[in-house]
Amino acid sequence: xxxxxxxxxxxxxxxxxxxxxxxxxxxxxxxxxxxxxxxxxxxxxxxxxxxxxxxxxxxxxxxxxxxxxxxxxxxxxxxxxxxxxxxxxxxxxxxxxxxxxxxxxxxxxxxxxxxxxxxxxxxxxxxxxxxxxxxxxxxxxxxxxxxxxxxxxxxxxxxxxxxxxxxxxxxxxxxxxxxxxxxxxxxxxxxxxxxxxxxxxxxxxxxxxxxxxxxxxxxxxxxxxxxxxxxxxxxxxxxxxxxxxxxxxxxxxxxxxxxxxxxxxxxxxxxxxxxxxxxxxxxxxxxxxxxxxxxxxxxxxxxxxxxxxxxxxxxxxxxxxxxxxxxxxxxxxxxxxxxxxxxxxxxxxxxxxxxxxxxxx
Length: 361
Prior knowledge:
It contains 13 helices and 11 strands.
């Protein structure tokens, strides 16, 4: 190569780097100020306050981005009503919403699979499907027509079946029962004669206390005790058949997401993944302590649902899911979820189940 040609190429490379440098510098120095709404009230543990919550997520993103992405967090009712996050993000009124995807059943039934499926997978299995089984990709495929993307950013682990004013002895006790219960489980209960209500967390206690509802499901011992549900009903049923692992959803406007530099997108994704794990860990400690208090000090009667009731709920769940899969997108998500569950169940029988039955003692 001639000396003149080498000099020309060297100068061209320098010129290219100089021209590209301002664009790179601008991308790395640009600041973004976003709004994030929630389906839960300001100060709500797990959802709005504490490890893995919406405010914790915003704090992590701000610190990891060195202030380049600042997210102002609004509780339910502060900026929009509790269950209007989907529409607000879709319209671009806010960039983010923190809630659970099963609140959007009226928009797209398939969204419910990304929160919890009755008789479905636990925390470990759900994470396996979402992160490594194609679940998140399907989630975003479901939301693509609405101009949004989503990812997991929290998990309660196994939830409690709920609070009942009267003892549940058989399936017949569900007939005419008024119960707060969202998601797929609400459809299952409805098929057994339950009058299903979907209420924000802050409205559950007064409705239960006044007899507007006869039973209610929320989350677990810590969250339920905070709402005072033990003061309105004494029968607290276990099993978690309806929500064996309940995922918190970070919903993001796609146009806003695409404007973020790749490094900020990576920060959001990694902060959300951290909150997903950290929040579930917090639930284990908080719920174990609260459950002891409820039973030992507050007169709560905690017990599993009768076997015949569980069997009936499983039968109705299968019917509800079979009917829902007539929709092609729902079927695509359903088949992916249960194909992964089948593999996970075989492994879980060898690992987790064997531990609980043979080792834990």
